[in-house]
């Protein structure tokens, strides 16, 4: 009973998001594309924070790497191949996550928060100082990646409506993939590590390897989100590595509800839409935004998703 | 002495001065975290508030010292009010919610700053009695105000050491750090201790902002900049350790200053490279206790 209700809600939301593509104005299509990109990013972080118990404050490192990889693969006046550049961006982010994960996973708790921050800050300062990466001014992806295969062009990323649908499809794919992962033995081990790592180790699981695998998967998905960001705006700058972005996506995960996959999506929508609402109303939108976050923490002890759940029919 | 040696010496002085200033901010952060168990992202905002109050009050009174004297109580009262309303409900909550709430607080405080003072960069003149430089060689000299600043920071660090190690209050603070429940059951008023520690942390961070104004000016985002570096200091030193905060502040101050001067291509990275190296060697920080 429970599962079918959940499925019905998910399908209804999906139908709504698809219908949105054909009814909404250009501005809202772009806004929602941006939100869904951040939702992919937030889901990838939730795999670490909500499922494995690894609070990363430097997840933007992989987002930035995905974005910069698209730029590096795009010729000055021509398009990069969509089918090559997208996996390449994810691969670069994954390899970096492997290298960084090998080091940072030696620490835990608050120290883990800070070491991950340190690594993302290194990327930030490297990009900011490096002349070949455009320095603090950033660089431009002049032509969007081209999905043409054998003379056939299935979609055009330059059209907001088609870009929106591609991002929606990738968000759904990410959601399904992570649901599948979390339901697998691998995912159960991650949850076990979160609640008691010593016990998992004594049960014979090589927890370090499991955490590393989660870190790499999360890094690759963050790279995907960063890639889409660069493809949408055509502009890449060191801010994509910045701690503000890492903080913002962490807020989406916590606010939405950790350890659920729809939580981060809700968090991304809530945070960006509220941001949009406030910034329309006043230049000083950060003030109501800050107050909103403070009140949300005081009023919703576990985020939006568990709060919404109270309204759903109970299975027991 | 050749100019290059004097130049090196000047950089050491600059690094130490920056490190000592960092220590004022980081020591409050490490105390609040070590004793109260609160991750306070808004700690840097108190640095910013101190700086902006000093700027505004110096404009009004014409006297830096008078401005600091007036601004310090304002900052402390504000800190205590925030502790009562917002931080206290967080004591028993997960660290993540502390991060979230204090992040919201950063946004709100930053925007209040923008509403009250605007987004321009402002400066405050160095007080006339310290507004000269000591000549070192023909071309190089060192501004006296920076030396005064270092001296004040050192004096404060010494006073802190005395309070923590040699007084009854310090004993209570150390007891609260090593075992909260035990300290409470021995009759130490933990709620009062928390308030005192938080107020002291706010006062130190705000004071650092105040005395830094003549050399660093006031600008939007200054609080966040110092916050991130202070976190690095706390983590390298070991959470809750004042001694660790002192040593790592100086390390970070020197690493940053020398990074800027001798390796400008990777400047800014040096601090984080140092942190990564230390944590890989000692995951609990230089003077931290094992988790």
Task: Describe the fold and architecture.
The complex is a heterodimer of chains A (about 325) and B (about 290). In chain A, about 70% of the residues lie in helices and about 0% in strands. With about 325 residues, chain A is an all-alpha fold. Chain A has a domain of about 210 residues. Chain A starts with a helix and ends in a 7-residue tail after the last helix. With about 290 residues, chain B is an all-alpha fold. In chain B, α1 runs antiparallel to α10 and α2 crosses α8. Chain B is globular, with a radius of gyration of 19 Å. In chain B, strands 1-2 form a two-stranded antiparallel ribbon. The relative contact order of chain B is 0.19. In chain B, about 75% of the residues lie in helices and about 0% in strands. Chains A and B meet through α5, α10 and α12 of A and α4, α9 and α11 of B.
Please state how the strands of the largest beta sheet of chain B are arranged side by side. Answer: 1-2
Q: What is the name of the CATH architecture of chain B?
A: Orthogonal Bundle
Q: Roughly how many Å apart are the termini of chain B?
A: 49 Å
C-alpha-based Rg of chain B, rounded: 19 Å
Give the averaged pLDDT of chain B, no decimals.
87
**Greatest chain-chain interface?**
A-B, 42 and 45 residues
The third-level CATH topology of chain B is ABC transporter involved in vitamin B12 uptake, BtuC
Number of alpha- plus pi-helical segments of chain A: 13
Total E-strand runs of chain B: 2
Task: Tell me the strand percentage band of chain A.
Answer: under 5%
- The fraction of residues in strands of chain B falls at under 5%
Q: H/E order of the elements of chain B?
A: HHHHEEHHHHHHH
CATH hierarchy, class of chain B: Mainly Alpha
Determine the oligomeric state from the structure.
Answer: heterodimer
Could you say which overall geometry of chain A the principal axes of the C-alpha atoms support?
Answer: globular
Largest sheet of chain A: 2 strands, antiparallel
Q: Label the structural class of chain B.
A: mainly alpha
